[in-house]
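target protein:
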Amino acid sequence: MKIKVIVSAVALALSVGACSKQNETEEVTSVISPTEQGSQFGQVVSPSSLTQATLKQIGETLDIEYRVVTNVPDDSCDQEAADGRCFLAEIDLTSQVDIDSKDWAIYYSQMRPIQSVVGDEFSITRIQGDLHKITPAAGFSGFKKGQTKTIQFRGELWQLSETDAMPNYYIVVDGLEPVIIASTQVSIDPETGMEVRPYVSAFTDSDSQYKRRETDKLEWATTEVLYRNNLNTPVDASLAENTILPTPSKVSLKTDAKPVSLKDGIKLELNGVSLEAVDAALQRLARIGVSQSDAGTDSELDSGVSTALLPLIAPSAKGEYRLEISNNGIKVFAADDAGFSYGLASLAALVDANTLTVNPMLVEDAPRYDFRGMHIDVSRNFHSKQLILDLLDQMAAYKLNKLHLHMADDEGWRLEIAGLPELTQVGSKRCHDLNEDTCLLPQLGSGPFSDTKVNGYYSRADYIEILQYAAARQIQVIPSMDMPGHSRAAIKSMEARARKLISQGKVEAAKQYQLSDSQDKTVYSSIQYYNDNTLNVCMESTFTFIDKVIDEIAKMHQDAGVPLNLYHIGADETAGAWLESPVCKAFIANNDKGVTSMDELGAYFIERTARMLADKGIEAAGWSDGMSHTRAQNMPKQAQSNIWDVIAHGGHKRAHQQANLGWQAVLGQPEVLYFDFPYEADPKEHGYYWASRNTNSQKIHSFMSGNLPANAEQWTDIEALPFEADDTVKTDETGKIVSEPLKATFSFAGIQGQLWSETVRSDDVAEYMMFPRLMMLAERAWHKPSWEVPYQYQGAVYNQNSGFFTKEMRQAQARDWHTVANTIGAKELLKLDKANIAYRVPTPGAVIKDGKLFANVIFPGLEIEYRDAGGQWQAYAEGVAVTAPVEVRVIAADGKRKGRTLVVE
């Protein structure tokens, strides 16, 4: 593949690579091959005058500050790109040493491509993806000690979050080791445990920095806004009594009976049920103080009960159970291991963690959906095996049963594959090897060195352990190695393999698993700005590779005693890929696979891979956009589609279309189920924000999964503007139906939460983003609320005035939320503390009225603290006299960790 390169003429001798248009410089076009590309990146014309010691001193002392000036576009924006949208940002560089040399480059991750650089002292060049480098340009006059120089530039679209500014800038001189610039490293807040970016200037202006455009109505989540949002939720710990999350189908209290004490534990009679099947649930009970003991309360599992005695909300669903708690003991009735596990999980949910008592009652329960999933991306940034095991524990506690483990994408391959060691030797690491012989290019602020926690992979033994750990908790692991797009890690690993084998004279072996056509001149760009991340689907070696990977993963499942019966292929395709590939042109000309045009290649790949899987007894799953390109008649009858379309953008249409094919349609709507989005509309919150800037637990709780378009009555779009969802039959000019309502004979298979990891660099941040939102995912996956608007199969148009979501339904939803919020605040967060889960401690709402402080929190029961500027933290009491400004924060349920501090003006 050849890459078109546009570089500044004055910087050409210093920098060769993919870059964007530079301001006030002549454009020069050059074409380089991959081998040339690697050798020329970062090269200089003559040996540098800088030494390793000087470079180290620069790295230790150079102060860098990143600042978004405005997201309001002006006439200098590129009017032909991104609809004329751009932002203005600045990078300040303050040197503590004199620097006269021009033989250096600073590499860093810039999340949006540069449109133009102001002035002639510096150039910014995009290398690949988000990797950019800053180099001196013609007008560079050197640094003097203590001098600050500012690079002002415009970038595509907008930057609305302080976490957009990625860390670990590093300075490079040809022939020397790279040095990380210390001022751009993240630090950890000792009170919150969260990452802090000290090199980023805080946002101060909502209109210019936090608005996407002039019509944007979203309010910055100040203490006043949060206070108003929390105001209607009562502080009532009694609402948490006798409650279980997720909410059961039916609970009957025995009001005339006294509480049952479990201080001495439980004496469990298994009655033939495998201890392994319920051991995880018993461990959860033990963590909150209820262990197994011969002196404990008599408890037993009973599999002899007829399922006819159970509520059977979803007759085909597994996991139904009945829990009876009385003064004579505890019984769990179920027909399968999952039911027994869930019955014990509900017992754990009912236990008062302080008194270790539970009230006598009867719980009858069954899940709404059979598929109740959580997706976690460990490719963009790696996450440890221990994080996955801890996540599985919490999934089991809240009755989630599918772990979608995303282990390969552009930025990393995270699973050892026997016979293909390069996938992990090269593809699991990012470092400053611009040839990519030993690692991938640094992306996402990973820095120049491979020995960092964002790099890594699971060994075969690790993966087998994860599979067995999940199976013991009735959770199915769904492996995912994204393809044909989002496959850069695999492509570059196999290119490194080929180069190594060719150097050994093994030319034929080098071709065996090739994934790219070296003669492909196609110019394209993925959504993450890669031009080399798509498997060439016209090469038989691509399918040889896929077959090898799937077989090796299946062997690991077999060794774990957990058959592989569902595999997620991603199914993403990159628009425009393959167009100039000689291999693809020949492939179509030969026409022996039924492909007659380039437009059919994406569908061909997914269909062929799905059939390959079906032949192995494995069901294929894929993301809804790629799956929509397939021809249903060419697909296996059984297939799963993960729906990730935004409801505010008509996302219900694809969901209905793919469910109507008879596929297992799993809902994952981004504006409510993407947990890598911010909790609240605050630029200091972690996460991406392309579909939502405020996805808190209450919003997830409000999700009406059984009637997607009806959510238009209660939600707004990303700019807090109302939208309409038209669910009536739509036809094109030929009369062909292009969208229609869900058919009464079909339904959704379930729902899944997603955590993508571009901005999630550590295990603690991953837990912060997932918890406590995972509880509300479980609530909506397990329990069908009474207030959900019934679906109208004849079709309807929904908006904020359509009236299907009645006043009574809204009131019932509010009452339900009050119970859930108090349950989380009074009971569930403490259990997360006991499990050492670094959940997000919420930010408080607060106002000052007549010199008195009034504060609240989304989860009543959590303690709030306040202090005058520079003073001592004090426990908040309603109406305490204060003098503005005042700082406020929330304390974790166990009193240890602290939430982020906000200021009340």
